[in-house]
Design brief:
Number of domains: 1
Number of strands: 0
Distance between the termini: 46 Å
Order of helices and strands: HHHH
Radius of gyration: 22 Å
Number of helices: 4
Shape: elongated
Largest sheet: none
Structural class: mainly alpha
Amino acid sequence: MVPPFYLNLLSLLLWFLTFLTFFILMRGLQIPVSLIQTLLGATASVVASFLPIGGIGSFGTVETGWALGFKLVGLESSLAITSGISVSLLTFSFATVLGILGGVNLWVISRKRKGELNAQAFESSTPH
C-alpha cells in the first residue's frame, strides 16, 4: 500500500502540472497572464466544474467559471471568454488524441499477446 504522504505529494504534483499546462496554453494563445493569475483564474473553473449542472463534459459550466475567474484577475471580458472556450477545446483535443493513441497502443499490445499465445499453443501441440 502506498503511504498517504506519497499520494498527497503526487496529487500536488498533478495539480501543479495542470495549472502549468493552463499557463502554457494561455501564453501560447498570446494572452499576457502571470502564473499567479493563471492559478487564481483557472481555480474558478475547477470550482465551477464541481457544480451539479452543465452539459456534456461540463461544457459551459467550466468555461463560465474560467471567464469569471480570469475577469476577476484582470482580463477583459471578451478575452476571458475566448480563452475559456479555446483552452477547453485544446484540452478536449489533447484528450482525444491521447485517447486514440492509447486505444491503438492497447490494440497493438493485445494483438501481439494473442500472437504470442497462439505461437505458444502451436509449440506445445507439436510433437518434438
